[in-house]
Amino acid sequence: xxxxxxxxxxxxxxxxxxxxxxxxxxxxxxxxxxxxxxxxxxxxxxxxxxxxxxxxxxxxxxxxxxxxxxxxxxxxxxxxxxxxxxxxxxxxxxxxxxxxxxxxxxxxxxxxxxxxxxxxxxxxxxxxxxxxxxxxxxxxxxxxxxxxxxxxxxxxxxxxxxxxxxxxxxxxxxxxxxxxxxxxxxxxxxxxxxxxxxxxxxxxxxxxxxxxxxxxxxxxxxxxxxxxxxxxxxxxxxxxxxxxxxxxxxxxxxxxxxxxxxxxxxxxxxxxxxxxxxxxxxxxxxxxxxxxxxxxxxxxxxxxxxxxxxxxxxxxxxxxxxxxxxxxxxxxxxxxxxxxxxxxxxxxxxxxxxxxxxxxxxxxxxxxxxxxxxxxxxxxxxxxxxxxxxxxxxxxxxxxxxxxxxxxxxxxxxxxxxxxxxxxxxxx
Amino acid sequence: xxxxxxxxxxxxxxxxxxxxxxxxxxxxxxxxxxxxxxxxxxxxxxxxxxxxxxxxxxxxxxxxxxxxxxxxxxxxxxxxxxxxxxxxxxxxxxxxxxxxxxxxxxxxxxxxxxxxxxxxxxxxxxxxxxxxxxxxxxxxxxxxxxxxxxxxxxxxxxxxxxxxxxxxxxxxxxxxxxxxxxxxxxxxxxxxxxxxxxxxxxxxxxxxxxxxxxxxxxxxxxxxxxxxxxxxxxxxxxxxxxxxxxxxxxxxxxxxxxxxxxxxxxxxxxxxxxxxxxxxxxxxxxxxxxxxxxxxxxxxxxxxxxxxxxxxxxxxxxxxxxxxxxxxxxxxxxxxxxxxxxxxxxxxxxxxxxxxxxxxxxxxxxxxxxxxxxxxxxxxxxxxxxxxxxxxxxxxxxxxxxxxxxxxxxxxxxxxxxxxxxxxxxxx
Lengths: 428, 428
Known about the structure:
2 copies of one chain form a homodimer. Helices cover 35% and strands 25% of the residues of chain A.
């Protein structure tokens, strides 16, 4: 049997402990599958005294993750601390400088520093793998980097934040307002310390930017992701969208268009009967589209100790087997600087507004839409008890600019109460 | 840039030509992703004169695939001829003896000879990869062998024959009998020359046996797959199952139980709302379950030139990148000889029978079920115009043996007309 592969694990939260447990429980299985023992040399975490549900007594304890990352008896630095900068970034850089391979679950760090780290690692012949950083246990980085590597990727989509999907599906099933379910989720411990990472779409945006880099051979461009959270989604919109055959998802979409690289993480309507529309609760789903393979859909747990540790181990095993793949699927120095699309691809939109109950009101709305070049696919006006009526419109394909312009003009007609709501409909 | 990787492609049907086209179209992309050019040295097929939709003029033509497989200028033998034995097997053995790596889409050959071929290749330090042999474009071999390699796999399930799924969903949507849709499928060219490969579950059984070998670290045991085709599924059962909230799928299930390795490819009921239940038409779906990752669902095109060629290229790229993974995820000489489970795991069953319209008829049925230790979860009797009434029963968990025994006894009561139909309900 070959030399053991020796790990240094920094960060002993749920994922770190989950990883330790797999290595302990499946030592024999892992050795059979990789041809060599996988060992833990040393670990580190902020609080040594914390009670952890695993026996760590046979591993060296390092207070300083930088020291851990540079130990002679560590071949692979496993970074499970999190955070874009700070200790995780310092230790990862130190590991690379010391000639270690790196496995990380840190989407924020890679979204901000992925290109630099990859270039540094590759210059020394070392690898950075990050399956656990995107969609938990779903082997989507592997599917995209390896399984679909014979394809020109045309689009990557996904529901990649389980908390947001939980909130949206819970709003629908329980008929509750956003604020109520947000509070529920907070009490259940589903939200990050800074909830905006979840509900603002930032966490999912980090993941999308990493997949986009692999898919399109471009440098990670998280700053160019158009981000919109789920805070403005009302129970009314969820109900009305359902009436029209749709569900609302916080959907990430990355595609290369004639106008450049389009990356957005925003609420979208998807057909209720589609795999994305059928995705309930905290589960994640990623849709990959390639010129040969067509559409591949991957579904699974996007978080949690077991699924995320499973993804960490997938990377460790890849390294143990001697597979050495560039971080983003091609050498970092061949990744193109992406041109961010200034305008998003046209799409149908869902429009909801409250119309005053006056003769000619609908005509005024239709006139403005027509003037903006927006044509109507379907329209529905609801019965009402008071002086205003909800009106739903599904448009044919149009631009975000046209919709925004129309939405700004509509209140000026005097027949539209409040702000119209416009949500993109993604064809899946 | 490193040395080119040189292919010899045997078999120029839709998948072979699809593979040639990807290599021609994406030469630059493939070189960027693998770090080396991927070239075709030579090709072979039965009929040189056949008009093919690709320019093959720059490749050497070999009449004999064995000669192709052993050429000095071939690093990887790409076997896309098909057939368990004959030319494909001869050429693959010749390639291995000549020290070539092998990429194949040939599920039948691997189901019958996979272990021998893997052992021979590995003894020489060479690899056999077969992503295209299972579920077309879905990267399921990679997901199982690599993505979930940190898990003890608990169950593998899948709809892996698009033709059968097309037939079953078309029966439901059009309300047609099996024979009618079978004839439609034949005329559309969806069926193999020997249709029993499709509708008898053999093709899908081949695929299941390959996944089971990876999942459970056992030698391929296709002969131990319990095979049952879709020929006995009636439109009545499809409709009645739908009434009870189920859909009927030709479902492969492999799991390691206390009784041994259970492998079956047979019609099952699955909840209509589950991902498997929602799978319509010719699409494939594979469900992988592991002790850490939970459940992962993969969905995509299971056949066709583009998807299957995409899978072939995934293997070629893996080899070009220098990843060398054992055929079944661990060395062939470590694969255990599986003990086939003699009895399948208990499950709920769906029972349909025609009951004569006599007092006490249902009591007689219930008595027999009770005597066989089968308890009833739900029962439904339909209104009827003639002298018999359809009765549906969903049982609690019981054994296949108990169900079969009861089904044999029921006609003897004199109140059950014809043969009762019993179909397993798989919990997904």
